[in-house]
Amino acid sequence: MTVESDLLRQAMRFWATGVTIVTAAHAGIQHGMTVSSFTSISITPPQVLVSVAHNTRTHDLIKHSQHFGVTILDESQMEISDRFAGRLSEDVDRLAGLETITLVSGTPLLKRGLVQFDCHVLTTVDSGSNTLFIGEVLAVQAAQQGTPLIYFNRGYKKLSDL
After folding, report:
1. Mind giving me the DSSP string for the chain?
2. Which of 3, 60, 72, 123 could potentially form a cystine with 114 if both were Cys, beta carbons 3.0 to 4.6 Å apart?
3. How confident is the model at residue 5, as a pLDDT?
4. Spatial separation of the C-alpha atoms in residues 103 and 18, rounded to whole Å
5. What domains are defined for the chain?
């Protein structure tokens, strides 16, 4: 029995998640995309995982450069999330006009955000329409305060104390 993609998409709307921008650069081209499929998979050694669709420019740049960056967005960055979520063409430089930094690998990271991770690809796993990129965290920079941007049921939400 196979679950239809629309049914799975509807069900996954009820999984609350933080919002990240995954970035990469290679041969003078830089790009990024909004990704909610991001997680830490090991503290020692430090490793994270991102899931990126095969048919994206970001996927190709990660594949060729063997590096990627992750910026965790704060609750004030809804417009940046939308900008990187594919509402602009894959051919547009989504980083244009935004302040970026680099840490170790030269991968661009958004200067503003709660946390920036600079990663080197250790392993890739093709799974369906995506590639799981497992990266060694080369460097991390974290803000001292802030509240994450949350995505739930097709919209942005605010984290509140219960």
Report:
1. ----HHHHHHHHTTS-EE-EEEEEEETTEEEEEEE--EEEEETTTTEEEEEEETTSHHHHHHHHHSEEEEEEPBTT-HHHHHHHTTSS-TTS-TTTTS-EE--SS---EESSSSEEEEEEEEEEEEETTEEEEEEEEEEEEE-SS--B-EEETTEEE-----
2. 72
3. 84
4. 22
5. 18-157 (2.30.110.10)
Interval 27-73: pLDDT, tens: 999 999 999 899 999 999 999 999 999 999 999 999 999 999 999 99
Residue ranges, the chain, pLDDT below 70: 87-90, 160-162
Residue 132 has a CB neighbour count (10 Å cut-off) of: 15
Other CB atoms within 10 A of residue 40 CB: 11
Q: What whole-number distance in Å separates Cα of residue 2 and Cα of residue 88? A: 32
Q: Considering the entire predicted model, what is its pTM?
A: 0.92
